[in-house]
Structure formats: C-alpha cells, structure tokens
Write the structure tokens for this entry.
Amino acid sequence: DAGVIQSPRHEVTEMGQEVTLRCKPISGHNSLFWYRQTMMRGLELLIYFNNNVPIDDSGMPEDRFSAKMPNASFSTLKIQPSEPRDSAVYFCASSLRDRGAFFGQGTRLTVV
Amino acid sequence: LAKTTQPISMDSYEGQEVNITCSHNNIATNDYITWYQQFPSQGPRFIIQGYKTKVTNEVASLFIPADRKSSTLSLPRVSLSDTAVYYCLVESNFGNEKLTFGTGTRLTIIP
C-alpha cells in the first residue's frame, strides 16, 4: 500500500477563496482523522470519521470548515472562505482499530 | 481518554541510550500505549505500541510497569537522525475514538 495520500502538497490561495484538501486513506482502515499543525497550537485534531461517519467534529474551528467522507477511500476538508489565520500544515491520518494511526505527508496551506 | 504527561524537551549526545518517560495515571484496562515520532515537515510516524511489560522492535523498546501508570520509550545508541518530537498517546483497543496529541517531547541529539 502507498500509505495515506494527501493532495495537494502545497497550496497558496488568497483570502476569501475556497480551499479543498484531499485525502486517500490506507485501504482497509476504518478510521480517518484530520489534523492541523502550527507552531503556536501544535497538532490539533479537527474531526475524525469511523466507517465513513463523522464521530467528533468538536475540533473544527468554525463553520467555515467542513469535512466529508463519501466513501471508504476518500475524504475532503474544505475551508470557505479562507483566512490568513488558517495557514498551517493539514494532516490526514487513518487507522484500523487499535493498531496506531498512519499519517500522510500533509498539505502546507498558505492564505495571503 | 487518559491524559498523558511527558517532558517538553530533552538533549542527548550521539551514541547514548535515551529514555523518555510518559505518565498516564488514568489509563483504563482496555487502553494501549502508543508512541509516535515526528520529524520537521513530516507527519507523525507510529513507532511502537504496548500493553504491558516490554515490547521491542527495530526502532525502540517500550517498558511498561505492572501498574501501567507510566511508560518509558527507550532509543538505543541515538544518532543525529533521531532528533525529532516524540508523542505518547493512550489508545483504546475498541478503536472508534479521537486521537489527541499533546505537546510531545522535543529530543535534540548533540554531536
């Protein structure tokens, strides 16, 4: 398996624009997590899914953020409209029960 | 979910054995202890997981005492490439739960 695949690797966008981040989890994994990492706030859990169902989205900062998992092999995190304070590295991770989480390479988002 | 406490930072010289201890006083019967390693500009990487006593793999060893209220990650003969942030997490074997990372331990290896 190629591991967790995220796209794009880098995204630069202007304030107010819509941003969509994509994630393909490891085949067979039943949990998917979206994280955001900044120097100031560390690694924050935004939302996680189990069997494609959102279980806890309490970490989603505002209504501007939304996430979907239409099937077991794909998830998106959308920010609309984007703001400069959304600039961060966004990670997607997947896991199977208690066997540890595996992370993608991340998407570095810069909102100018 | 059990809260974990670990040192914010540690320094060590190359070739030394490094031990990072994590406290998890409220660990539940069904919880496992998992350690992750994160290099700059990369996502965290799973390195080792254990339930009790000792677990060893090609990267590290994990020591867990009988009361399971703490655990120690041991890195043998560290090199400069072991400089990273190390996170200790407690995970339920039921799965289906949020994985929350703390601040981790920033390990710096000195030549």
Notes: The first strand of chain A starts at residue 5 and ends at 7.
